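for the recovery benchmark. tokens below, seq after
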């Protein structure tokens, strides 16, 4: 059986209140800037950390296993928190790191793999909050991620993205361990690499 590396959930989510929460707290993008400074592939991004790794002595960030809420997660982003709580309630698993990413128009995240022990046991998801972006993975034609769409992608495969359209993009990126979401969509994705419709692919 082929390994699933990219999947778009069938539901389109109402993201308007989540978008407002981010726009009302844009100043938080400048609070922690180490991600774009330390990782060349992320140099064009800005990040708000809603749930972040707990430092472990003598280990790099991609080896940290623990996670903790930011001080402003529940107070400034309650709608986003509710969405994530509901995801766990429906699909199971343990919620780990949660980031809000801003990538300006026409800029990109370069090709990379999310290396390290932390990523080996988590599924990574993107919920698109504002704008749209081209997303590419090795072995697949690029696809377009649009507002309100929820995507899983296998971050152990080389991947990249570029903001397109007419506005800077926001996305919520979150990691879940031991989720059973595949069981809910097993009939649709069985024996498939991806369920991406042809209309979403860039030829």
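predicted aa per position
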């Amino acid at each position: 059986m082929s390994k699933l590396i990219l999947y778009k959930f069938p539901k389109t989510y109402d993201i308007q209140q989540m978008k407002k929460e981010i726009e009302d707290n844009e100043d938080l993008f400048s609070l922690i800037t180490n991600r774009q400074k330390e990782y060349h592939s992320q140099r064009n991004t800005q990040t708000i950390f809603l749930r972040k790794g707990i430092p472990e002595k003598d280990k790099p960030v991609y080896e940290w296993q623990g996670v903790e809420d930011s001080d402003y997660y529940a107070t400034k982003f309650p709608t986003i928190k509710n969405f994530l709580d509901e995801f766990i309630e429906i699909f199971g698993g343990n919620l780990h790191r949660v980031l809000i990413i801003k990538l300006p128009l026409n800029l990109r995240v370069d090709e990379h793999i999310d290396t390290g022990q932390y990523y080996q046991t988590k599924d990574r998801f993107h919920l698109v909050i504002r704008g749209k972006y081209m997303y590419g993975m090795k072995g697949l034609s690029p696809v377009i991620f649009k507002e309100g769409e929820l995507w899983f992608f296998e971050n152990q495969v080389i991947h990249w993205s570029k903001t397109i359209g007419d506005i800077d993009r926001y996305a919520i990126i979150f990691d879940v361990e031991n989720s059973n979401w595949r069981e809910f969509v097993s009939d649709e994705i069985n024996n498939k690499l991806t369920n991406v419709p042809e209309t979403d692919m860039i030829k």
